[in-house]
Amino acid sequence: MTTRTDAPTRREQILREAARLFAERGFHGVGVDEIGAAVGISGPGLYRHFAGKDAMLAELLVGISERLLTGGRRRVAEAAGDPEAVLDSLVEGHIDFALDDRPLITLHDRELDRLRDSDRKLVRQLQRQYVELWVAALREVRPGLPEPSARAAVHAVFGLLNSTPHLGRPGALPGRTAMAALLHRMARGAFAAAAEGQGE
Amino acid sequence: MTTRTDAPTRREQILREAARLFAERGFHGVGVDEIGAAVGISGPGLYRHFAGKDAMLAELLVGISERLLTGGRRRVAEAAGDPEAVLDSLVEGHIDFALDDRPLITLHDRELDRLRDSDRKLVRQLQRQYVELWVAALREVRPGLPEPSARAAVHAVFGLLNSTPHLGRPGALPGRTAMAALLHRMARGAFAAAAEGQGE
DNA sequence: CAGTGTGGTTAGCGGTCGTTAACCTTAGCC
DNA sequence: GGCTAAGGTTAACGACCGCTAACCACACTG
Fold first, then answer.
1. pLDDT bucket at B166, cuts 50 / 70 / 90
2. Which nucleotides of D are covered by protein (CB under 7 A)?
3. CA at A8, C1' at D30: how many angstroms apart?
4. What SS3 state is found at B175?
5. How far is Cα of residue B78 from the mean position of the Cα atoms in its chain?
6. What is the pLDDT of residues A14-64, one digit of tens each?
7. Could you give the CA distance from residue A56 to residue A105 in angstroms, rounded to a whole number?
8. Which of A7, A178, B51, B176 is deepest in the core (most CB within 10 A)?
9. Residues of A with Cβ-Cβ distance to B194 under 8 angstroms
10. Alpha carbons A140 and A135: distance in angstroms, whole number
11. Where does residue A44 rank: exposed (0-12), middle (13-18), buried (19+ CB within 10 A)?
12. Whether B127 contacts chain A with CB within 8 A
């Protein structure tokens, strides 16, 4: 593993700010001049780093999808043999993501349709594989749950975990670790309830 | 109650199509010409019915928020005295909404920031009151749950229930009544789990 | 110290978009 | 039967936006 301690490159700065702005105001709601201004350069300077506005969004969405999928696969492999542990690890990883990369999570299910056809296909494929990871893990823990229900339950839990962005300003909310624990409990509770009265 | 059986007015047609388009491609991603085309008139003809594109979005968002809040209040009043029934009724009402008015639910937490200041304030206020309804109902059922956690849990369950729009094309999914039952079970399970190990 | 690649700048073009203006048709009414 | 109001039409305007062009400063390198 290459843990990076070096300063972020200009490209990375741009991606971070673009993600934040896209999440706040929507892809079409943000101009290239604003993105440039957010990193201290102005407008067309961005084109030294990216082919265009679309390319930024594409790189963001492909990046998230890949990170989610590879992270998920790693966790499944690490906890292999203990289904409960696999599901817990997936939940934990997703929560870390949702809490630490809010803008990306927001973009992930909001701006997919603004992508070029090929990129959109790629992202959808990665997303689908990630979902399948969860569905398989869930059905190991709850064998009585039919696959369509399992798929719907997984989507619903994604919605639950990704709800963090919609929270107002901090203050009236639990801190990060308490929040993570709360979300984890709720996700497990939701999965358990999904299986009740369903042949289980 | 005035149950309307008459045909929808032109205004209502426009609002319906605008909601669908906004949800699909984002507020800024849809042109007025497209909205017009969707109801069989073209472009500027819309201005006979609305002051502008912003006005359509405003009316949609204020409308949803009001419907959610008044519906919620009615349910709370109807089941008053039985906390469990209140919470169940709120969940049921929200599920009906999420399943039957998908585009509106999508817009509701996605395009709020595109509103004029005054409209945004109004919508936020209505949303806040709706959340408070849920928080109060939840804390009646789970008195051990501190308020910040209850608020976070309510938001998380909204995310869970509103996850329906993100589902791919039908087919590999439970039908409407099964889906409603599944979501209801999961929401109750999530709430129950939120209270565990929390002084309860 | 000339040459070159990197990462900026400003000016401006072409297209799109929301909105307005001006005009037209039809239905209902006195 | 003219008048008016309602609900359309097309043309066009002004603003904005993504992107390109042209130019420039500087750090390295042989």
1. confident
2. 6-12, 16-22
3. 31
4. coil
5. 20
6. 999 999 999 999 999 999 999 999 999 999 999 999 999 999 999 999 999
7. 16
8. A178
9. 182, 185-186, 189
10. 9
11. exposed
12. no
